[in-house]
């Protein structure tokens, strides 16, 4: 069998076929071809020695083995030159030419008997496995030997004196370049040292996991091809058209509770999709929707948007809803939602008011990611509507406006029924909640009346449509709750008086506004503003 040469030696030798060992450094997007696929990647065996390789194959499942940092042993690559640069090229399982790729000691495809009869196979010995582990721990290869087997021999022999050139892989000093989070590197070494353990041992590793867990919101800032650990709930599970991939939509408790006027729902989830190819279907058999799990070492991938990919080193540990980690995530999510929908009142003294008259000097505090502010209408700097429309989202503003229009026109339609179980509005709105259950989830004890208005406000610079709903509407109308659970509340009559007064008198009044992005547009919403001094 031919030597496994360094990349520099291959370039100099000008051999048409060669064998090479290297570390996978970069992956291009998978390219569908006529009846097959092409995967291009970059390997290196030293800081200066790199080579682009293109492999053609028909079974898309082999993509699971191509992961940044894996050691590739390529036996039988063909030489290809493009722009004076030497590349490797192969068609796996071609009838005339065979290329065998080993990833971390395992063949990319199962080797069948017919293949053994027709080709010389390169096999990984324990010494090579030891070198792989050494690479993981120290960042370079020590010397290692390879043995070969042919179709005419059932035993493998080595002759260090006569076949040293054929059986010795050269010493490679490779700077380790795996794109892994520093906090996960020790866990990764453990996975490589236990690469051949059975599933029970893998489960033990998962159950004793103590690595860093990231949130879905944080993944947008994590580099592609990095490994991450997340705790999340499966909110949706579906299969690809060819049934070779299962897509899991995951939610980890992050996100804001916002009203989406298009879908008529209150959205509170930030989700991400994780792709699981059929080689790993057995890993997710017990992973149904609404199940919480710890996902260990899943890869950050990019296809149209950030997503996750379940790979060779990935593991899953199903968690109970009572698991402290799950409870913590849900508690943090609830606190964040409360910050956005039920902002606490803070009363302070003002040089303009005495101690007995603090009601008009309330501070309104809201937290949106990376934005935190305290607003006092007495001293606030007001933002013009024109500037609000030009600002980035999400954001919060204080502005002085007039009320131009209100919708719906019928005030009794300002009150709608929200199911707190699935966070959807009932359409059409029932006139009573007696003997009524949610159309979506069939719940009858989580229904409540809620304000939902669309207001058009304006100033000298322009107009702005805003939403007023929920507890913020109650605060705006100086109400603590809606006075009836079953029948249409009469509280809306007090709200009607305030809206009519603002429309008739056309006087300016201050409001706090927050902006956020829904599925189809930017939405502006009035929050924590009390309408006062209405005649």
From TrEMBL:
A GO molecular function held by the record: telomerase inhibitor activity
Entry-linked InterPro entries: NA-bd_OB-fold, POT1
GO CC field: nuclear telomere cap complex
Cited SUPFAM superfamilies: Nucleic acid-binding proteins
Domain of life: Eukaryota
Protein name: Protection of telomeres protein 1
GO biological process: regulation of telomere maintenance via telomerase; telomere capping
Low complexity: compositionally biased ranges: 146-174, 183-206
Region listing for Disordered, in residue ranges: 146-206
